Amino acid sequence: MRIDIATLFPDMCEAVLSESIVGRGRKAGYIEINCHNIRDYTLDKHNRVDDKAYGGGTGMLMQAQPIYDCVMAIEGELPEGAKPRLIYMSPQGKTLTQGLVKELAAEENLIILCGHYEGVDQRVLDELEFEEISTGDYVVTGGELPALILCDSVARLQKGVLPNEDAYSIESHYNGILEHPQYTRPEEWRGRRVPEVLISGHHANIKKWQEEMAVKVTKEKRPDLLKK
Length: 228
Hints:
Elements: E1 2-7, H1 10-17, H2 20-27, E2 32-37, E3 50-52, E4 60-62, H3 64-77, E5 85-95, H4 98-105, E6 109-114, H5 122-128, E7 131-134, H6 144-155, H7 166-169, E8 188-189, E9 192-193, H8 203-221, H9 223-227
Parallel strand pairs: 1-2, 1-6, 5-6, 5-7
Antiparallel strand pairs: 3-4, 8-9
Helix pairs in contact: 1-6, 3-5, 4-6
């Protein structure tokens, strides 16, 4: 799988995507992630990529031309006939869920646009038919942090990035409910003991306990998930 990020802050993205599980997955070749500086595609002699919005208002708006040319350049690097899924990180988009992550993880190519300032010129979104995705009902300074969340969640589902499917299939949200509580050594800490079933060695009982606790935790913390 290949993911391309169009951003004004490629170094910010690289700093995160070069570390931990995703960084190791990239180095091993299990997933390809490229960060592109939109500013490299501006035609403005002062290297500007933004301007005042028509109709007034505070803040600046990213212009259509640099974004369009950046995306066209990325698409030019893809194999002939490739149809990348274009995503714009936006608070107006549909919410990113684990179900959507699984769907995106099955794509061959993703191009993610990170807005900044007051957003981007609507015309480039319409022209390229960007799909808008949000990581939640809040606003952040730019699209980079949401894009990194999306990349991380999609990358870890790629074959080889994690040791095996169990590394992600039993985690919270993957199957619609939250994960069961987990414990490590020592067996007792400040008077609190690890549940006896987990140190019993009885795998069937352990699995049953984990399933029951997952439902209990979901009921207590996110009953809305059970309703779904």
